[in-house]
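Changelog-linked ticket: nicotinamide-adenine-dinucleotide example.
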Amino acid sequence: MSFKPTSILVTGGAGFIGANFIHSFVGNNPECSVTNLDCLTYAGNLKNLAALEGNSRFRFIKGDIGDAALVAGILADHKIDAVVHFAAESHVDRSITGPEIFVRTNVLGTQILLEESRKHWQSGVVENFRYLQISTDEVYGSLGETGYFTEETPLTTNSPYSASKAGADLLVHAYHETFGMPTLNTRCSNNYGPYHFPEKLIPLLIHNIINKKPLPVYGDGLNVRDWLHVRDHAVAIETVLKNAAPGSVYNIGGNNEWKNIDIVHLVCDELDSRLGRDAGENRNLITFVKDRLGHDRRYAIDATKLKADLGWTPSYTFERGIAETIDWYLDNQEWVAEVTSGAYREYYEKQYGGGVA
Ligand code: NAD
Ligand code: TYD
């Protein structure tokens, strides 16, 4: 029997995936209220949720997942029966230059959220409860040229980011085993789509091409990622939340592997015509730079279990998804200008010594 949440707490809902999830979930669940807890780091922006302003089923609370009293109050006041936990530091490069905040937010923050969720669930205030941890394929480490990550692949992490996400996943597992808490855990491949902060590969490429800035390709450009449209991810999360057995782990992936350099070429070429430039002109912006430290070579998700158990498959073709994403960025240059000012500029200038549009 499927679980029907009535009041969910989303953490990190002002970020890329959280915001897309909230839009999708609110649209699909007219009976359920949604509370978004987000402390608005450089990666969080309330503009991502502007369309929900004035919606009586949606509320935003500015705060930190590490604030136990605040979390406890929200869970009790709003009779939360499901927590969907996105809030995190999410950029691998930042975890290399400053790992501490990754441990604080992703590990300690998750532990505090789990602990308050446990007390709330055990208090019996709500009849039914789920805690859903949003994780990443990066917890499985790196693949060679063949093979796929399944839910049974051991966690083997290579970056402070992935290590902190794996630490959180292990805590979630421990809360299920120790307390019998009804937890769920999803591990998704690389997402792309609207509201993606332009420090990540695809939106960075679009942003820099528009502004005729260099396109930094790490190492030989042959690392492989498996790309999934963020709206497909949102639907997968809702499917798992409502239908998965407590304690389960599900991989989510697009079955859509690309070498980085091929993505760079694709985005360059798509933008040639849209920007009225000559065919091949944007490729002149490609600049090979020093490789990322500990750079994982290949990620590829086996999402068979999710399809077999719960019937989920992606709906976007990559062709359609990337074209729509590029158009979204062209149509939302004001958003890009806002999020790329301030903290982003400083960070990017430090990384590349200028070149920020
Ligand atoms: P993001 O960086 O765009 O957004 C993170 C959000 O969390 C921001 O709104 C930020 O303000 C908020 N936040 C950070 N620290 C917080 C704290 N202490 N308290 C409250 N809010 C806080 O991240 P994203 O790309 O949307 O990723 C969301 C989740 O999905 C993360 O857990 C990430 O590990 C996971 N994930 C991401 C991808 C991807 O491709 N982006 C793929 C798989 C899994
Ligand atoms: P990213 O979007 O940071 O996601 P992740 O590291 O979580 O997979 O990077 C995707 C791939 O693109 C990764 O192999 C690193 C590479 N990359 C570049 O080559 N140049 C860039 O400027 C960035 C941000 C990433």
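Closing comment: Example verified and attached. The chain has a mean pLDDT of 96. The two ends are 52 Å apart (CA to CA).
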